[in-house]
Amino acid sequence: MDFRRLSCAALVAGAAALAGCMTTGKPEPAEAPKPVAARAAAPSPDDPIGVKARLRAFITHDGLTTTPAKPGEAARLTAAWNNKIIYAPDPVHGGQPVPGLMGKLWLFGPDVAVPLTVDGEIFVGVWDNGPTVNGGPPVLLEAWHIDAEAAKKLRRPDFIGGDAYNLFLPMSQYNVDLKRINVVARFNGADGRSLVSAPETLTLDHSATLQRAAERLGGLGSGPARPEAAGPIPNPLPINFPEAPRK
Length: 247
Description:
Layout: E1 2-5, H1 8-16, H2 51-60, E2 76-81, E3 86-90, E4 96-108, E5 120-128, E6 139-146, H3 148-153, E7 155-157, E8 163-170, E9 180-189, E10 194-196, E11 200-203, H4 207-218, H5 227-230
Parallel strand pairs: 1-6
Antiparallel strand pairs: 2-4, 3-4, 4-8, 5-6, 5-9, 7-8, 9-10, 9-11
């Protein structure tokens, strides 16, 4: 399992590619992991701010908020993910296009009307469903941590009102053999409330990867390589997201 802490620069580049979202159907939800008894996630000498401990809490659903939300407090984390593998420039690696997932997160209060604006950190995990074909459990493939300061840079006014977090998650463990994955997000608010999204199962669309491979193969012929085969692909097209639930 690969655990990544995303840089602000990479996150802002991914967020910029999310402009112009529309609504469409929502992916089939997966069975939620079973919660376990809450216990403190204390820092350790090699992890002074406790990120690894909070990552473990995310994976096990440890320490989730159980007290009812008051007006103005977050009561539910709602997520929408696009199943297409998207290539976006990665400023951390010289602007080279990297494959990843795109999604949006909303925080709703107890009235589930307009998304709230709440500061906090975000964890996202991807589980490979391949082993379930032979009766095994999904395997955690990759996880991302977005600290509170970086998360602020991803927050944008949303078309349904309020704010949404616009995410691009570069996948270092990506390969075209991945078929179906589970995606789960967690939000740890600065106010101490911790919420998790309902897991969603995505059947990955590798069309962008296959197109890029075909373009590179086309550039290996007798003539000169086509410019698009050697350079970065155009900015990703706008993607469609489901409408967040309303009361």
